[in-house]
Design a protein that fits this description.
The protein is mostly helical. The protein has a single domain (6-266), classed as Ribonucleotide Reductase, subunit A. Helix content is 69%, strand content 0%. The protein is built from 11 helices and no strands. Helix 5 (114-140) crosses helix 9 (227-242). It is globular, with a radius of gyration of 20 Å. The structure holds fe (ii) ion (2 copies). One fe (ii) ion is lined by residues 57, 84, 124, 159, 162. One fe (ii) ion binds next to helix 6.
């Protein structure tokens, strides 16, 4: 299948629409949390940020969909808009259900244009890659219960669909404009990644600072997570999520390539003896041991 053809457009749009799952956040199997699980969930400082960022994405993507001429692409982006809006409602539901102290946060809306959608799309490629690593490690280190994390797995699969749709849409548009040369395309993609990262950094300076975590056990677990562990986990989870979508679709490559280069660089460094602290929980201690022996190998 050639990039930029009607068959390509049909595949990336239809795959997205057909894998959309209808549900309401309140209907999901939310676990009853108590004790350390509830305290830990409440202590995570990012809920108010996540809710505002998803709500803003919902408004932006929904508004952008209305400006698209191609009816199939318009329909697909509109479905993404409903999913982003639902992510905002899902975060709201988490905050209410578990009694999290997360006052609303105002983040200015992004302008609506194909260019802004491109910056947003490349930003999502980075965010979802980091999210893959964070959620997989939260599960591996037993930071939060599986019953809760499996709901967030569902959210991450929706984000996987968003970035795969986005990268195919972008390549489709590039090919149709005669700009599908590998080097130009890679340089352009890196430029967008840079702009998205810069936007995140600039936006972050407008936000109130995240409060300190008040959970000594969690702090110790987090301190024991090395960059190597994080990158390995994110890459593995990225492969797992991407393999759930049609093999013929283009998958994002910039973040996995950067992560792989970092991984190779870190592996070439001489081993540090003090890098993994002994974590407080027994299952985590076993994981740390496994990583230590992996690193030494
Ligand atoms: Fe989202
Ligand atoms: Fe998304």
């Amino acid at each position: 299948m050639r990039v930029g053809t009607p068959e390509h457009r049909e595949l990336f749009c239809r795959t997205f629409i057909e894998t959309h799952v209808a549900f309401e956040p309140e209907e999901l199997p939310w676990p009853d949390l108590q004790g350390v699980d509830l305290a830990r969930l409440r202590a995570f400082p990012f809920w108010r940020y996540a809710r505002s960022i998803e709500q803003r994405a919902g408004r932006m993507v929904t508004a952008f969909a209305k400006t698209i001429e191609d009816p199939l692409i318009r329909e697909t982006v509109a479905v993404q808009g409903t999913e982003e809006t639902r992510h905002g409602r899902l975060m709201e539901h988490v905050i209410e259900r578990y009694g999290i102290d997360a006052p609303p946060l105002d983040i200015a809306d992004a302008p609506i244009s194909p260019e802004e959608f491109r910056v947003f799309g490349f930003g999502e490629c980075t965010d979802s890659f980091v999210g893959f690593g964070a959620i997989a490690l939260a599960r591996e280190k037993k930071i939060l219960p599986d019953s809760l994390l499996s709901i967030f797995d569902g959210v991450m699969f929706e984000e996987t669909r968003h970035v795969v749709f986005f990268i195919n849409w972008w390549r489709y548009e590039q090919a149709r404009a005669g700009r599908d040369n590998f080097f130009t395309r890679t340089a352009t993609a890196l430029g967008y990644h840079g702009r998205a990262a810069l936007g995140t950094i600039t936006g972050a300076t407008d936000l109130p600072p995240m409060p300190e975590l008040d959970d000594p056990d969690l702090k110790e677990i987090v301190a024991g997570i090395t960059p190597l562990m994080f990158i390995e986990t994110a890459l593995a989870e990225n492969r797992r999520m991407m393999s759930r979508l049609d093999r013929r679709l283009i998958k994002p490559t910039v973040m996995p390539a950067i992560a792989t280069a970092l991984l190779l660089g870190i592996r070439m460094l001489p081993p540090r003896k003090d890098v993994v602290k002994t974590p407080a929980l027994a299952p985590v201690a076993q994981d740390a041991e496994a990583v230590r022996s992996r690193n030494a190998a």
